[in-house]
Amino acid sequence: MTASTRQFALFGTPLAHSLSPRLHAAFARELGVAIDYQPIETGVDAFAEALASFADAGGQGANVTLPLKRHAVQACRTLGERARRAGAVNTLVRLAEGGWHGENTDGAGLVRDLTGRHALDLRERRTLVLGAGGAACGIVPALLDAGIGELYIVNRDGARADALVDAVGEPARVHSRYFEQLPELGEFDLVVNATSAARHGGLPVLPMSLLSARTAAVDLGFGDDAIAFLAWARAGEAHAAIDGLGMLVEQAAESFEIWHGVRPGTDAVHDAMRAGAASLVAAD
Ligand code: NDP
Fold first, then answer.
1. 0.85 surpassed by pTM
2. Residue 266 is part of which domain span?
3. Tens digit of each residue's pLDDT (9 = 90 or more) over 224-252
4. Does ligand 1 lie within 6 Å of residue 157's CB atom?
């Protein structure tokens, strides 16, 4: 590490399988930027202290992942528009006057992957989002901005889905429902699995009636985590079955641009990681 090397970190837990350090190292190599990006395994209770130590040691920016994204809002002196609307932060930028600025790049990363890499036109798509956790909070405003049509949010804990619908503030367009009501909801043009159910007991049974030949089905997870949902989508002959690897790469590129003022290319690193996707087990 030289004097000009800028320090970055990833906070969250568990981080053992995180691809973020590899992504940021690859972007930095491509653009000739000197960075040191280290995972710092931290739960909610230790986060404030760990972030303060990182700042004292000269840390310039950080990513924040599970379970800290919503918690990180409290750690920020200022919030960007996307983080404010999401109520969740995944990117921290050290302010010149001290303290942190928070942003959220998850939604922009998803939309860029779907519209760019997968050439999907999201406009007017009748959309179902499964889950109302940190990732759902990040992607919902971005999907609405991208022009989707009616949106249903279904979560195991109905109060969390209601809170997300209320936060969005578009009652004519955005609705919450329970998993038990899925058979009554009809077909969707876009179905997004934003749950971590693959790691926590598995998703409730999803009816095939949600799918049509127009449906794009997207799992924010990838590798083993996405197998069951994408298999369901393929069995229902969905038009497209897409995992979250592309979103992961794009949200990282958005964070990189916020920190360094230059956007890395993403295709080469995406393709390299896709080639090894069978061994990938975790998303950020
Ligand atoms: P959170 O812990 O904040 O939320 C988890 C969500 O999953 C909640 O809605 C929870 O419901 C739901 N859930 C968990 N277990 C089950 C189950 N058995 N049945 C039904 N619902 C369940 O996690 P995040 O929102 O941060 O992450 C969600 C997923 O998105 C993860 O797989 C993560 O890896 C992925 N992700 C991918 C990214 C990418 O770049 N590709 C970026 C961010 C996240 P309840 O509220 O009822 O507990």
1. yes
2. 6-104+246-280
3. 999 999 999 999 999 999 999 999 999 99
4. yes
